[in-house]
Amino acid sequence: MSTEHLMGVYNRAPLEVDRGRGARLWGKDGTEYLDCVMGISTNALGHAHPILVRAVKDQADKLWHVSNIFKIPGQEALADALCEKSFADVVFFTNSGTEAVECALKTARKYHSANGQPERIDIYGFDGSFHGRTYGAINAAANPSYTNGFGPPMEGFHQLVWGDREALEAAFRNPTTCAVILEPVQGEGGCRVTPDEDLRWMRQMADEHGVLIIFDEVQCGMGRTGKLWAHEWAGMTPDIMAVAKALGGGFPIGACLATTEAAKGMTPGAHGSTFGGNPLAMAVGQAAFTEISRPETLANVNEIAGYLKQQLHGVAQRFPDVIVEVRGKGLLMGVKLIPNNREFMGWARDEAHLLVAGGGDNLVRILPPLNMTLDEAREAVERFEKACEFARGKLAA
Ligand SMILES: *Cc1c(COP(=O)(O)O)cnc(C)c1O
Question: At the top level of CATH, which class does the domain 63-292 belong to?
Answer without folding.
Answer: alpha beta
